Amino acid sequence: MSAKLPSLTNIPRRFPGYCLSLSTPLIDEMGLQLSTLDDSLVLSIGSGSGLLEACVRRQFPRLRIEAVEVAEGINSYLPDDCMHVVKGTWETCSRSSDASAWLFVYPRQPSLITKYLHTHAENVQLVIWLGPKVDWQDFKPCFESGLKVEEVKNCGLAEYEMMVIARL
User: Fold this and answer.
1) In the chain, how many domains are there?
2) ∠ CA(151), CA(157), CA(158), 5° rounding?
3) Are 52 and 28 in contact (CB under 8 A)?
4) What is the pTM of this model?
5) How far is CA 59 from the centre of its chain?
6) Residue 160 belongs to what domain range?
7) Using one digit for the tens of pLDDT, what is the confidence trace for 95-152?
8) Closest to 67 in 3D by CA, of 58, 55, 80, 59
9) What is the pLDDT of residues 152-167, one digit of tens each?
10) For residue 70, which phi and psi values (nearest 5 degrees)?
11) By CB atoms within 10 Å of each CB, which of 5, 7, 115, 135 scores lowest?
12) What is the CATH number of the domain that holds 141?
């Protein structure tokens, strides 16, 4: 973890090298949703630089957040022992079976979420999907089999982004 975390404000803002708009209200909402799981493991699948996860950890240090990415060297913000590497966007991480919550931030393929849900969901209680509103229709079918799904409104994202919570 070498990069300094940026200061966030109430206004959603994009940061270099990160796709999701970040804000203080978003981090607060993430902490609120994830804090319901006690001190269980949260796994961020496709974490990129780890900026969101590190911001959540800074505000909510009790949360155990680890991350998965397809290559080493992408992470700039999380400790190395919190990172897991998979071979490609088709491969799942076995650590996901130990997690109570998964984060998907701007995921690329609905099939990967479906694969995770079919192979590693035995302990998962909560899935958070963050991405562009226009992409949700492609990802919505992943969450339609037995999950309680809700969109979280006014959660500190840019107007073109959304947060969806799925409870198993």
Assistant:
1) 1
2) 115
3) no
4) 0.95
5) 15
6) 19-86+93-167
7) 999 999 999 999 999 999 999 999 999 999 999 999 999 999 999 999 998 899 999 9
8) 80
9) 999 999 999 999 999 9
10) -85, -10
11) 7
12) 3.40.50.150
